[in-house]
Design a protein that fits this description.
The longest helix has 39 residues, at 179-217. The protein is 79% helix and 0% strand. The protein contains ten helices and no strands. It is mainly alpha-helical.
């Protein structure tokens, strides 16, 4: 039975991906040099050495032997915990502000100059101020996540609300719906695709920011893990952590992408 065009395209995509993987691994091994054992002072470790380290670290990811010796699973758990707290708080605030800005062109014009000034500021630039005011490194990292997640969701929400058909809002007024019912039954469903697009951008920004913030605050988290392993010249562990950070970022984005598709499918 002849393959359909869609199936041929999928097979071609898989083959291309495998070829790219082999090329990347070959280039990596070539850069690593002969042997690629990754011992201290021997240069960049090769893929075989990193794979061995990865297997060793994943075999017992949740051990705890003191403040500076925790398994990667525990470090990842600390990072994800901070991510969830900061991201959820920012999402609630961003959606509420976005609805307010999108519902009132005059308010949007008044607030826009302040937004344009605050939006380009790197979230890490707020860290010294947060550390000074709350004097807690973990909470300061959560606030960095909050700042990194706020703007994309707020901007997309405002755009989505401003793009809602006026007929929908007029009907809700004719039916004399209360503001909470109008918010949950009209505004949120109509603006959901734009809001989810903002949330998807924000989760990527938040994950990038938490890793950088944890390099500054130390103690726990994948960012601290990377920095501590670098101080120990354990490049195998550093590369493993880099790959794991990328994989977690892909999974987070994939999850929100699936939610966005489900919302679009149900509309």
């Amino acid at each position: 039975m002849a393959m359909t065009a869609a199936r041929r395209e999928r097979v071609r995509t898989v083959v291309y991906s495998l070829v790219l993987l082999v090329v990347c691994l070959g280039a990596w091994q070539a850069l690593a040099g002969a042997g690629g054992k990754g011992s201290k002072g021997s240069g960049i470790p090769g893929p075989v050495a990193v794979a061995q380290t990865s297997w060793h670290m994943l075999a017992d990811p949740f051990y705890d032997r003191g403040p500076n010796d925790k398994g990667f699973g525990l470090q990842l758990g600390y990072s994800l915990g901070r991510l969830v707290m900061g991201y959820l708080a920012a999402s609630v605030v961003a959606i509420m502000l976005g609805v307010a800005l999108g519902s009132s062109p005059a308010l949007f014009k008044a607030a826009n100059p302040f937004i344009q000034i605050l939006k380009p500021i790197s979230p890490l630039a707020w860290m010294p101020l947060f550390l000074y005011t709350i004097k807690n490194a973990g909470q300061a990292a959560v606030l960095v996540i909050f700042m990194s997640s706020l703007w994309p969701t707020m901007a997309n929400t405002a755009f989505g609300v401003a793009s809602i058909k006026k007929d929908y809002l007029n009907v809700s007024r004719l039916l004399q719906l209360s503001w909470p019912r109008r918010f949950f039954q009209v505004i949120l469903p109509a603006a959901a695709p734009a809001i989810l697009a903002g949330l998807r951008i924000s989760i990527g920004s938040a994950w990038v920011a938490i890793v950088a913030a944890e390099m500054l605050i130390g103690g726990t988290g994948v960012g601290y893990f990377v920095w501590n392993e670098w101080n120990n010249l354990a490049l195998n562990s550093v590369i493993f952590a880099i790959l794991a950070i990328g994989l977690v970022g892909v999974l987070l984005d994939f999850g929100l992408g699936r939610v966005a598709k489900l919302v679009a499918y149900t509309e």
